[in-house]
Amino acid sequence: MAAASNPVQEAIDRRYMAAALRLSRRNLGRTATNPSVGTLIVRDDGAGPMIVGSGVTAIGGRPHAEAEALAGVGELARGATAYVTLEPCAHHGRTPPCANALVNAGIARVVGAASDPDPRVSGKGYAILRAAGVEVVEKVLAAEANAQLAGYLIRSLRKRPEVTLKLALSSDGKIGRRGQGQVTITGEIARREVQMMRAEADAILIGIGTALEDDPALTVRLPGLENRSPARIVLDRDLRLPETAKLVADVDRVPLHLAVGEGVDLQRKAAFERRGVRFIGTDTHNGAIALPELMEDLAALGMATVLVEGGAATASAFLADSLVDRIVLFRGVDEIGADGIASPINEGSIPSGFTATREMRFGDDICREWVRAL
């Protein structure tokens, strides 16, 4: 017989899980092969629940969030509740599993959000807790956690990163003008939101056409978040990128990967390598880089989230190969005109299988988001 629901406790659980999810965003894009997880340790000694410990997966992926939250809590953990945005790990490495760490600390209750698809963990973390007499409540704000952990979940299930396609469209559906470099389409507030998207991604990807046309740096330029710039990836089958490109200029600070095909000039490649540029050898299909295989390679490099920023040909290729998991369209208020480059997708041509999830306003601009189910 199922236990009777407790609306008051359920509301408390949702409140603290929402806080744990906010905390987990702190290191998105910075935890390598591990996901950025949030953990809160909460106890109630009669005066209401109080947070006594908090942790997020450390930069680089270790220690895990549970260990970070338990550090320094001591006896306050005994009898407390742990709110964890992803099922605690159950496999042994150089350190004990997080599920065991919670048991050993005396945690009495664990509230989890997303389940871990990793076969070393899936269900086993919760089983360790229950076997030790710990009360376990699963799937609190699971949908919100799954959305935030989509990169980790997709890489685990599909062996490739989560791909977000981001485009800025003028009021007449154009994304730029040929031969004129970068064209401002949205306002400053919307552009700052894009900077935040970059700061939470593992990598940004563009095609060589955009690299040659716009000469972008693709770094995070928000004050205080400059060190959150993700790796840059350019689809450059024939190694056409100039050594003078902005992408190369700061390669010592932000990694640059060039995805190239066979037969590129070895002397040019060596010159780039001396500058610190990294290369990814790719297969080609019908004269273009084979994107499914490239995505597998990026997952093997530890990348879980890739933000595709341009241009039209690259966006079309990812859509054609059904590699896009999330579509984000920013719609500006000004027209570009007949000489503009038409967007390969708009609000009326979203592929089947995607669900509209959010609509936001940034100044005069509208941002809409669609997500494909995991």
UniProtKB/TrEMBL annotation:
Glycoprotein as a keyword? no
Q: What is its EC number?
A: 3.5.4.26, 1.1.1.193
Recorded protein name is: Riboflavin biosynthesis protein RibD
Q: Which reactions does this protein catalyse?
A: 5-amino-6-(5-phospho-D-ribitylamino)uracil + NADP(+) = 5-amino-6-(5-phospho-D-ribosylamino)uracil + NADPH + H(+); 2,5-diamino-6-hydroxy-4-(5-phosphoribosylamino)-pyrimidine + H2O + H(+) = 5-amino-6-(5-phospho-D-ribosylamino)uracil + NH4(+)
What keyword terms does UniProt attach to this protein? Hydrolase, Metal-binding, Multifunctional enzyme, NADP, Oxidoreductase, Riboflavin biosynthesis, Zinc
Domain of life, per lineage: Bacteria
Entries under Gene3D superfamilies matching the protein: Cytidine Deaminase, domain 2, Dihydrofolate Reductase, subunit A
Entry-linked Pfam families: dCMP_cyt_deam_1, RibD_C
Q: Which family does it belong to?
A: In the N-terminal section; belongs to the cytidine and deoxycytidylate deaminase family. In the C-terminal section; belongs to the HTP reductase family.
Write out the pathway annotation from the protein's UniProt entry: Cofactor biosynthesis; riboflavin biosynthesis; 5-amino-6-(D-ribitylamino)uracil from GTP: step 3/4; Cofactor biosynthesis; riboflavin biosynthesis; 5-amino-6-(D-ribitylamino)uracil from GTP: step 2/4
- Lineage from the top down? Bacteria, Pseudomonadati, Pseudomonadota, Alphaproteobacteria, Hyphomicrobiales
Enumerate the cofactors the protein uses: Zn(2+)
Free-text comment on the cofactor = Binds 1 zinc ion.
Instruction: Pinpoint the CMP/dCMP-type deaminase domain residues.
Output: 11-136
Read off the InterPro entries from this record: APOBEC/CMP_deaminase_Zn-bd, CMP_dCMP_dom, Cytidine_deaminase-like, DHFR-like_dom_sf, Eubact_RibD, RibDG_C, Riboflavin_Biosynth_HTPR
